[in-house]
Write a structure and sequence with these properties.
Layout lengths: L1 H26 L6 H5 L4 E2 L5 H4 L7 H14 L16 H7 L3 E2 L1
Parallel strand pairs: 1-2
Length: 103
């Protein structure tokens, strides 16, 4: 009887894996591995939406909104390091996301 249930249990667990992974990223951004970040598409900081920016490591909705607001006020970013001019964004956060950021 258990042998018949095993494939169904394994399949049901795999279906929830993306939701669990997304929850972990939102709650504990520092614990996200580099391999997880490799799956994130490149984010253009000059055109990305709040939703797209909030997918980056350590950047939630409020920091993403601050980036968009800064961009509206000051114009496009000339370099990725210019993100440090946004309140709440430091060099460490930029370094963690540098591989997936573009202009």
């Amino acid at each position: 009887m258990y042998k018949k249930l095993l494939p169904a249990l394994l399949l049901s667990n795999l279906m929830f894996l993306p939701a669990v992974q997304a929850a972990i990223e939102k709650v504990e951004p520092e614990s996200v591995t580099q391999s997880t970040q490799d799956h994130i598409q490149v984010v253009n900081i000059n055109s990305a939406s709040v939703e797209q920016l909030s997918l980056l490591r350590g950047i939630g909705d409020s920091k993403a909104k601050a980036i968009v607001d800064y961009r509206k006020t000051h114009g496009k970013f000339d370099s990725i390091n210019q993100l440090s001019n946004v309140k709440g964004i430091g060099d460490k956060l930029i370094e963690q996301n540098k591989a997936v950021l573009s202009l």
